[in-house]
Amino acid sequence: MKLSERTKDIIEWIICILVALVLALLIRYFIGTPTVVKMSSMKPTLIENQRLILNRWTRTTHQMPERGDIITLEAPSDKLVDIDDTDNVVARYDNEPTNWFSKFTYYFLEIGKESYIKRVIALPGEHLEIKDGKVYINGEELDEPYLQDNVITTAGDVNNPFYDLVVPENCIFVMGDNRAGSTDSRAFGCVPLDKVEGTVWIRFWPFNLFGKVE
Predict the structure, then answer these.
(1) Which residue numbers are catalytic?
(2) In the predicted structure, residue 208 carries a pLDDT above the cut 60
(3) Band of the pLDDT at 159, cuts 50, 70, 90?
(4) pTM of the shown model
(5) Which residues contact 100 (CB under 8 A, 6 or more apart)?
(6) CB-based contact 52:46 (threshold 8 Å)
(7) Maximum C-alpha span of the chain
């Protein structure tokens, strides 16, 4: 049966829309995507409701982020690990989807996925210590110019394994700049590289703060 010109036009438009959607999803997942700051853990560097552009090419190419980078990561399933369990210092992800559809919607479309924005503090193989309100990497105090003058990095319970550790291979240790109001590696442990979603690149809202985020 021969299709009418109107039907052909409708089919062409549907194909164009589908192609555009697929391209948009591919760019969003593999290259870059906008996001919104929803928490206060990165104050004063990032404030709630600010709009950012994430660079996801680092994830696509499996690049290790650098110390000081601000990243987004998949939130662990256990936000606060029992401090009596000192055998594993890696964050736990126990509620991951199992079938292909749930994996697609969770990882690709990010439906129902919770993410954190944090700063990279320590890299694989480095010895991290938190003591006397300061952070030490391999025995040397870490210079943190992004923190406000009155910020103290607390050690909490002396038995907590996440305050004196060697970062495992293919993992990073992260913290928020708002140290007193951040749930981070001090609570849930080191983050596996494959749970890093992207590196914060540009802040585009508000316009008066437009530019690269550091």
Answers:
(1) 41, 118
(2) yes
(3) low
(4) 0.88
(5) none
(6) yes
(7) 81
